[in-house]
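Kindly inspect both lines:
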Amino acid sequence: MFANTNFHFLVGLIGLFALAGCSSTQMEQQVPSNGAAQASDSPNFVIIFIDDEGIGDVGAYGATGFQTPNIDRLAAEGMRFTNYYSASSICSPSRAGLLTGCYPQRVSMPRVLFPMARKGLNEAETTLGELVRTKGYKTSLIGKWHLGHQKRFLPLQHGFDEFLGLPYSNDMWPVGFDGEPISTDVPTTAAADSPFGDETTYPKWKVECRPLPLIDGNEAIEEITTLAQQDELTTRYTERAVDFINRNAENPFLLYIPHTMAHVPLAVSKRFRGKSEQGLYGDVMMELDWSVGQITAALEANGLTENTVVLFTTDNGPWLSYGTHGGSNGGYREGKISVFEGGFRVPGIIKWPAVIPAGTVRNQVVSSIDIFPTVADIIGAELPELPIDGVSLLPLLSGESTAEVRETFYYYDLENLNAIRHGDWKYVFPHNYRTTNGMLPGKDGFPGRVRPVEFPGGLFNLRQDPGERDNLAKHFPEKVAELKALADGMRQRLGDKERGVVGTEIRPPALLPAPDASTTN
């Protein structure tokens, strides 16, 4: 939509907005007179993507029991969004959405990929890495990939010059909740994506899979078999990130850091173990905040702060069934694996001193799928020929405080469209889900119990009732009809398996042939 914006014209607009609210001296401090406009033609990008951290796990959003001063500083010096949505409430889809600018269903990434999967993100899709490389950027991915673990699907084949990290989630190994290897004769569940729910029963894939491979480039350099090895992941990622910044200080770059933490099993280095009031989860949050501080310090040391766009966000809401090892939904309803607000609404902070005034708060609805077209807009890159779903946030970032970049957001649960937001209104369709409410919570790395719920459908005004407690459907039937019609239009495009609708715009994933007829994906 905005991919061909002339950036010099944009900087002129920024100056006009700035004149409305500050003196010329103040404006010189925000936009230096030494050619910042020219430098901003190719800003660096740092995307920090935390796993399973809830919106209530950041100080700027109300966290308690631990401190996140470095993340809070990003918010104080940049822009904090109050209605920022991940592309999904689970791992693989949320990453697909961020990297392609598409709802995950469009690119056939609606489900979490498990170690037996023989599919990945299609090579025909353009990722953020491939997008910025058209403009000469260096690219690095450090952390959790989770869009296909076969060599053909790894980051180096999707636009990244460097990769250090895990191919999938850190619980996808044959180790139990107690940190001990799982016996091959332990009771197992049949379905690959069954919730754990019972500490004596594991999904079949978990018992049969191999230890976690730590990959550098395209090759495994280490097998992670113990929690002690996982304790060092955040430190190792951070050191590599700082090294990448130092090596590329003279080049425009994109650094994408999808941390392994705070996905269970939780792991933290000795320097942070026992440091928080909240226990191990708080310790992990403090170490992740330290990592943010190390990365921003490296930018500062190289003179890159002013012209680097730093995004901090998370892949989905907290995994509430893990109780003391899960995060906070900040008072929203439910968490990970849910279409309620606690599953999708996450922290979203962007700092870009050359453009964004410090301490800005935006209440407009935005999403991780909007990052791709925003980056394209900033650097003047052409959008891919294949359709995407995101819209550019550049009007918001550059000072148009009333800009409405998106009015509608769709909440998919796997292949099913189970909720829609339009303006302040959200309709949640009748569907079945699992909740921890009223059940014994998880403790010390063991998951708690969940119970099934049949939700009958409901209309909520999210401005007045962000916790989705007051069902207004019977009072506003015309609003229900309006949202249902919008949802039906999206179903025609991206499908709805439960309702028997096959989308006309779904693109295929990349697939490897099954080794034999008995193997399925």
Observations:
- Residues 1-39, 192-197, 517-521 have pLDDT under 50 and may be disordered.
